[in-house]
Amino acid sequence: MSSTDHQLTEHHVSAVRTRILDWYADNGRDLPWRDPETTAWGVLVSEVMLQQTQVSRVWDSWLAWMKRWPGPADLAEAEASDVLIMWGRLGYPRRALRLHETAKAVVTAHNGVLPADPELLLQLPGIGEYTAAAVSSFAFGIPEVVIDTNIRRVHARIFSGKGAGAPSLTAAERKLAAQLMPDTSTAQGLQDANTWNVAAMELGALMCTARAPKCDQCPVLNQCAWVAAGKPEPETKAKTQSWNGSDRQVRGAIMGVLRAKGAVDVGTLQTTVEATGQLGRHLPEVSQWDRAVNGLVTDGLAVLDDKILALP
């Protein structure tokens, strides 16, 4: 019998949920996209920006973005180049283009109103399972099961005694997450279910962190199977690519120049980029410059015309 089978009783689950919900009520961050007045579109924008990006980097960018383009119709009318410039240094700029495409699709297919339907959200460009579930829960109060990296780690440690979730989302993790959701047959249960999603996520972000968990401050320290097991190391550690010297670093530096200048001659691109200092001591070879430029063009983040590289 696994630790999950042994501990996954209604009494245990209820006790853990109650403690985490109470902790969140007292400790949840007052983030701008959590304001009750924030529109569903604002929640979607925050979720796209927060993908693989820290809250501290997103905060001001989200506020500026929502001030300039408060709804999908506003963003749909923008030029792609302006969207990329506004995205700034949030990273993974393809997210900006996908958000732009989503805005156009919402205007075309839904009269400019983000649909309150998980299945319809999934049909929008660039909206995957997690984002559709998160927007459904956080913006529309639909109790979808939300599963991100933080939530998977919290679930794994408390109920399975493992240091982290599996390398990729498994059927067992999906089943566990669904079992942990409150009963939604009552109004209170429905509210708790949506709060549970964000509370578990917040615990993972602030307390049950990957590298330096604050177990002594955790509200479920005494209920945690991972702590009881002596905090074993994860069986498989996720592989991460170093930023320095990577193609992503070169692409990011090129995008920084394009956001500032709009366009640059390919012949002077290397000198121009290196002058910004964004590459540090890294001196890319010609093949890496070519990969970076070609990749940006292929991804629609830049256009190349007569040796002039420019924003689209």
Mean pLDDT: 91
**Broad structural category:** mainly alpha
Total DSSP helices: 16
Oligomer: single chain
- Note the overall shape: globular
What is the H/E string? HHHHHHHHHHHHHHEHHEE
| Beta-strand proportion | under 5%
Question: Portion of residues in helices?
Answer: 55-70%
Determine Rg (CA atoms, Å).
Answer: 22 Å
Number of strands: 3
Ranges where pLDDT stays below 50 over 5 or more residues in a row are: 1-6
Question: Secondary structure elements and their pairing?
Answer:
Blueprint: H1 3-7, H2 10-27, H3 40-50, H4 55-68, H5 72-76, H6 80-87, H7 94-110, H8 118-122, H9 129-140, H10 149-160, H11 171-180, H12 187-206, H13 225-228, H14 247-261, E1 263-265, H15 266-276, H16 286-298, E2 303-305, E3 308-310
Antiparallel strand pairs: 1-3, 2-3
Helix pairs in contact: 2-12, 3-4, 3-9, 10-12, 14-15, 14-16
Description of the molecule:
With 312 residues, the protein is mainly alpha-helical. It is 58% helix and 3% strand. The protein has helices at 3-7, 10-27, 40-50, 55-68, 72-76, 80-87, 94-110, 118-122, 129-140, 149-160, 171-180, 187-206, 225-228, 247-261, 266-276, 286-298, and strands at 263-265, 303-305, 308-310. Strands 1-3-2 form a three-stranded antiparallel sheet. Helix 3 (40-50) packs antiparallel against helix 4 (55-68), helix 3 (40-50) packs antiparallel against helix 9 (129-140) and helix 10 crosses helix 12 (187-206). The longest helix has 20 residues, at 187-206. The chain is globular. Residues 1-6 have low confidence and may be disordered.
